[in-house]
Design brief:
Oligomer: single chain
Mean pLDDT: 94
Distance between the termini: 35 Å
Largest sheet: none
Radius of gyration: 12 Å
Shape: globular
Low-confidence stretches: none
Helix content: over 70%
Order of helices and strands: HHHH
Number of helices: 4
Number of strands: 0
Strand content: under 5%
């Protein structure tokens, strides 16, 4: 069961990073570094159980706002 949750979190993170990169005209590696630097990776890890119940666009918007509050400037 734990492996399934870990895989689901990883897939969700990758999808979020991919869409964030596309929306903001970044490469996927750039977007991932941004997520890592401004707490997006930790946020998904800690709150995946709630985040994945939101619409994808709402979750991405919330992530963008959160990372801006952490000092990010993209989005």
């Amino acid at each position: 069961m734990k492996d399934t949750v870990l895989r689901d979190k990883a897939e969700y993170l990758l999808a979020m990073v991919d869409h964030f990169a596309e929306k903001n005209r970044l490469s996927v590696p750039q977007a991932y570094r941004y997520f890592k630097r401004y707490g997006g990776v930790c946020l998904i890890d800690e709150h995946y159980d709630i985040m994945h119940t939101l619409s994808f666009s709402d979750a991405l918007e919330s992530m963008t706002v959160y990372m801006k509050r952490q000092g990010g400037a993209v989005g």
